[in-house]
Design brief:
It is built from 18 helices and 9 strands. The protein is an alpha/beta fold and 431 residues long. Strands 4, 5, 6, 7, 8 and 9 form a 6-stranded mixed beta sheet that branches. The protein has a 3-stranded parallel beta sheet with strand order 1-2-3. Helix 9 links the parallel strand 2 and strand 3. Helix 1 packs parallel to helix 18. 43% of the residues are buried. Bound molecules: D-arabinaric acid and zinc ion (ZN). Zinc ion binds next to loops.
Length: 431
């Protein structure tokens, strides 16, 4: 099975050919190059097999993805409380029944499940999930991971690793075997936004910190980050920030960012990834599915990029209304790398709009997409859809430059795709 539904490149296709391409061959050349480009998935919630049950995969996890849970409550009479009382398997059955049997799976997240089932030759419209369950149960995880990465056309997946995560922290403490296809990321949400609820965890681990981050706290948070840098070898540090994020301001978050996180990132040579725009728990009854979106004030980002020119920022914004500003800021600050079309933006119509705007304003100096996958097999459909959406946009850009008077070769296309999907990230994270 292919990473895309595009036509397979003819055997012996020379992706390095400098021959100018006739305009009518550009689309196919872009499709072929996209199928052949192995991507770095720079933000996922996947785990390497060494993390055991923290790594989610298989049909029950695919169906209970929080994107599908929020759609489920729109098509079922079941209340959230009744749903949360069910076992995972019962929840998956309920979602299958409501969204795939009683309705046609037209949304992006439901189509994704159909595409995954199809890729494994499993029934896409059966009344129950028996065949899919027995297929996934029979897969040894190590080889299954390799197969899924090959199907998705992925080179590496970047994890999201929370040192204060209840189960994850102890896995790291006991030492984790590195997997060549998974890179670590030091996620800071609990330390930044969750400081008041989590500072004691640092104190328990032997760091001399207090509730208001005074006294030795800053030096001790830096020591904590250094210890976790050593333990995880992360490729960047990361935080998700609410739409109300301001910087600088009189707050513990601002203090920790400016005095601990940014200096540590600089010293360690790591970028800081900021995902801005979540409006947390708009509907707490539906738990993880209950977060929304708000338009952020990106002057916070302007202040960060200008005042910390030695730091590098990987940034994704959740609100559609913030996308243009993000591109404009990227034109002002070369320490800012826009990335991905995140969460509610990861739908073909919006990916198309955002990517066109980014190409027009930034050329190839951005990272078009990450999967944000929480369940292993999601990368198959997410990357397939990304390639399908991007192919015509890129092809059109190449046709336009030809029309303007500059010819384009397969070598140009190959170089550009490599920059977009691999080297923009790899250069910034120096790995
Ligand atoms: O897209 C998602 O799955 C969200 O729930 C978030 O996890 C977001 O991607 C994040 O990393 O905070
Ligand atoms: Zn995420």
């Amino acid at each position: 099975m292919e990473a895309t539904s595009f036509k397979r490149p003819a055997p012996g296709t020379d992706f390095c050919s400098a021959e100018p391409l006739p305009a009518d061959q550009i689309q196919v050349a872009v499709e072929e190059a996209l199928s052949a480009t192995k991507v770095v998935d720079m933000h996922t919630h996947l785990f390497s097999p060494a993390f055991g049950d923290l790594g989610l995969w298989g049909i029950d996890e695919l169906l209970t993805y929080h994107y599908l849970e929020s759609e489920f409550f729109r098509s079922s009479e079941m209340t959230p409380e009744q749903y949360w009382a069910l076992s995972k398997r019962e929840q998956a059955d309920a979602i299958w029944q409501a969204l795939f049997v009683e309705n046609t799976p037209l949304s992006e997240a439901t189509r994704g499940v159909v595409a995954v089932l199809k890729m494994f030759d499993l029934p896409t419209e059966g009344p129950d999930l028996a065949e899919a369950r027995s297929f996934f149960q029979a897969q040894p995880i190590e080889t299954h991971v390799e197969r899924v990465f090959a199907m998705a056309g992925m080179k590496t997946a970047v994890m999201t690793n929370d040192p204060l995560g209840p189960e994850e922290g102890s896995v790291w403490m006991h030492g984790v075997e590195r997997h060549p296809s998974f890179l670590a990321v030091l996620r800071l949400d609990r330390i930044l936004w969750g400081w008041s609820a989590h500072w004691r965890q640092l104190a328990t681990q032997g760091y001399d910190v207090d509730q208001n981050a005074t006294g030795k706290s800053i030096a001790e948070v830096r020591r904590f980050l250094a210890d976790w840098h050593e333990r995880m070898q992360p490729v960047y540090m990361a935080a998700s920030l609410p739409y109300t994020f301001q910087f600088p301001e009189e707050s513990v978050v601002s203090l920790l960012l400016s005095k601990a996180v940014l200096p540590s990132c600089h010293e360690m040579g790591l970028p800081l990834s900021l995902m801005i725009g979540v409006r947390r728990q708009v509907n707490p009854r539906i738990r993880l599915a209950g977060d929304g979106v708000g338009r952020a004030d990106l002057t916070a980002l302007e202040n960060l990029c200008r005042d910390y020119p030695e730091n590098r920022f990987l940034v994704s914004v959740l609100s559609r209304e913030n996308q243009h500003e993000l591109c404009v800021y990227a034109r002002k600050f070369n320490n800012l790398m826009p990335f991905g079309c995140w969460w509610f933006l990861n739908n073909p119509s919006i990916v198309e709009e955002i990517t066109r705007e980014r190409i027009e304003l930034l050329g190839t100096s951005f990272i078009p997409q990450h999967s944000d996958a929480r369940v292993l097999e999601q990368v198959i459909y997410k990357w397939r859809n990304t390639r399908a959406t991007l192919a015509p946009i890129l092809a059109r850009s190449y046709r336009w430059v030809c029309r303007d008077g500059r010819q384009v070769s397969r070598r140009d296309i190959q170089r550009d795709l490599h920059r977009l999907f691999c080297s923009n990230f790899e250069r910034w994270t120096s790995h």
